[in-house]
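User: Please predict structures.

Assistant: First:
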Amino acid sequence: MRICVLGAGAIGGFIGARLAASGVQTTALARGATLEALRTHGWRVQDGTELLTAPVHASDSPAELGPQDVVVIAVKAHSLAAAASNAGPLLGPDTIVLTAMNGVPWWFFDGFGGPCAGRRLTSVDPHGSIAAAIPTERVLGAVVHMSCSAPEPGLVRHHRGSGLIIGEPGDRDSARLNDLVAVLKGAGLDATATTEIHKEIWYKLWGNLTVNPVSALTGATADLILDDDLVRGFCHAAMLEAQRIGAVIGCPIDQSPQDRSEITRKLGAFKSSMLQDAEAGRRLELDALVGAVREIGQAVDVPTPYIDALLGLTRLSARVRGL
């Protein structure tokens, strides 16, 4: 199997390194300092005191890499349109595209019933260019449950977890789904197949929806956010709005916001991915994580005053700081 990682940052680099270390032929589409680091050192993952290294064929030319069996997309959502436009030479007749990204993906309502069936989200794919470049029939969705950072280009620091929940957009079982899960498990990743990928995406989003933007807005780690009763109450109010939206579109959540926050609290004083981006001066993933939820709420007539406030404040802060 030939697997290409498109987005060789923290999550993409971790997945690529584990695959390559297990003997899977991996390539990476990269550029700049990350490309040079991969060409010089190969994949590198710092896991505690251990440094995992593995070979990779890295290039900035998709034509040089050629058609792949699987393309793992692990870019930030706002970089996806550009990445998708370059992906053509990587896609053979049967190439699988695994979307290992945060937030609501462009394909979310394809093959999924309910009041938004077939709806295109303008907050995620405003011009339809992503859907045109990567048809949904190629896609397997993935929910990432792992924490990694990239202290320098081409080097990944693994903090905790190696979970990947993978499913077909049509919420069905398939041979290609089970085959890819087996390959990922063989690489030591905690991969599982699901026939409810939409619910898994919405549940993960439910936790990220508030902690990520609040951390970017305030600079606070997750423990400080949850320790402040006013901020925690605001987050829970926004989560209730998202929970009501989920119930309407077919992604119900049985937990309470308080229950979900207790799970987050057990992770300690961690920096969310959005806070890491803010501190590094990188653009924030607001559209896929917050804007899409607001858009879906409008589509199904669920008011979102707390989500609106969260989006507006974080968006304004990001604009002022050039993010």
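Second:
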Amino acid sequence: MRIAIVGAGAIGGFIGTRLAATAGCEVAALARGATLQALRSQGWRLQEQGAVVQAPVAAASDRASDLGVQDIVFIALKAPALPGIATTIAPLIGPSTVIVPAMNGVPWWFGQGIAELAGAPLESVDPGGRIAAALPLAQVLACVVHASVSTPEPGLALHAMGRGLIVGEPQGGISERAQAIAHLLKQAGFDASAVPDVRWHLWYKLWGNLTMNPVSAVTGATADRVLDDPLVRRFCTDAMQEAQAVGARIGCPIEQTPHDRHQITRKLGAFKTSMLQDVQAGRPMELDAIVGAVHEIGQRIGVPTPNIDALLGLARLFGRSHGLYPPA
């Protein structure tokens, strides 16, 4: 089994190390800079439960042509990086390669299969449709990640909590390849499952990240402090209700209340969201895939989203003021 990880950061390092160490796979990496050098010198590394797991990397390069065609390609990039990378990974993809994006937010293919959105790509996540042109939908297997992982240094993934990986066909239903990859991920120690409605699972995860990520990034507050402020919590609740209304129109209804979701988030304690970690590290904000896409979908299907719009505007302005989001 030849597997390549595109983006060997936190989630990519987590998946890559476990597949290489426990599932008997040849796992290569498409990486760059200090991460590439660390992989070449030390292999895959994952710190969890006080110990460091290491495994050899089959190959590591910043050129996809050096790695060749793979059986599975996991894309674990931050969303802002994908439009510039998608066209360069063609050498990894053969006619039977399965492409598994393990990323935050709304993916580029999300509008395909939804009648109201099928006429054009989601410009917020796939400007000009470049990603869809480079990565054939028929070869994509969706993946929803429920894990908290960081990178304290290049090439080292630090696992804090969660091992959930949900896979499924973008167009719905259970397939043999989804079951096979879920089985492979279970062998690697993940809580993996194949589901018939992966689009719903993507939307449900997004529903929680939609407010907590940008609010924490702009304020610098951990999740518990966001929820402790009654005015901020009310704002988050209102925005989540708008996202529920959008989801109901596109086949992703959420029966849970925002209050119930807040209680789940509270159990995680005083954690820093991924977007807050990115801001503090000076990395680009994943704003378009998490907030911008919901704003765009709401506009295209005619569902008002005034609170989401305000959140997008404020977070976007914050990002531009700090050089973490593209200028207008």
